């Protein structure tokens, strides 16, 4: 297990090296975040003011609520998958030794619109079904459904790289992602989890430092320092979120390349990559 963590950490560092050489990849998660906030506002502000989400608990679990939730999920997933496709498409060009532009990423994503929409519908349906099942199950049922959700997330981790690289539909892309999972399960779980752990620690440190700085500012009634601190914390947190999203995109692109082609691309040590996957069937 320690060797898996060591190899995955090497893959994460290689992904970070790719990101450092092509910082414009950060544009895609930035635009994705802005678009997601706009989508959420578009759906939830009218829903709240119209009373759809303001009734009793039973009213919020009726057919109308789930139809609303399904529509929201479809649009939100479409936005996320679209920008992730643009990010991974650009990362693929970089891994091939090219110098991608932001326009290249969007061009690739635009060429996959039908597949992206289909996968958004599939993901939204799975999300709504799992949520509805959790709300009606006991605590053991919720635990089981939670594991099913995790399994879906892991199995579909490489769907977007598959959609970007192959001319297939969303259902076949999910099947292909599950097949590739058999080769990459160790590095997929540990590596992607490692990225989350690293950035989770960064966020924790940021929160502790920020809390201390805000406490000092309030105690001393230094409101200028308080405002500046709040702004800086917001900027640093935003950068952490963007870097994590971009890093996960590069990482998934590299995993897909090696699992399907035997080469993760420029910036990745072939010996480390080969050792990471040599025992997979």
Number of helical segments?
10
Provide the domain count.
1
The Cα radius of gyration reads 21 Å
How do the helices and strands follow one another from N- to C-terminus?
HHHHHHHHHH
- Global mean pLDDT: 80
Largest beta-sheet characterization: none
What fraction, in percent, of the residue positions are helical?
A: over 70%
Features:
281 residues; mainly alpha; 0% strand
Describe what you observe in this structure.
With 281 residues, this protein is mainly alpha-helical. It has one domain. The chain is 82% helix and 0% strand. It has helices at residues 2-21, 27-49, 63-95, 102-110, 113-136, 139-155, 159-165, 170-220, 223-261, 270-277. Helix 3 (63-95) crosses helix 4 (102-110). The two termini are 18 Å apart. The model has no long low-confidence stretch (mean pLDDT 80).
Q: Topology of this structure?
A:
Layout: H1 2-21, H2 27-49, H3 63-95, H4 102-110, H5 113-136, H6 139-155, H7 159-165, H8 170-220, H9 223-261, H10 270-277
What is the structure about, briefly put?
This protein is mostly helical and 281 residues long. The protein has helices at 2-21, 27-49, 63-95, 102-110, 113-136, 139-155, 159-165, 170-220, 223-261, 270-277. It starts with a helix and ends with a helix.
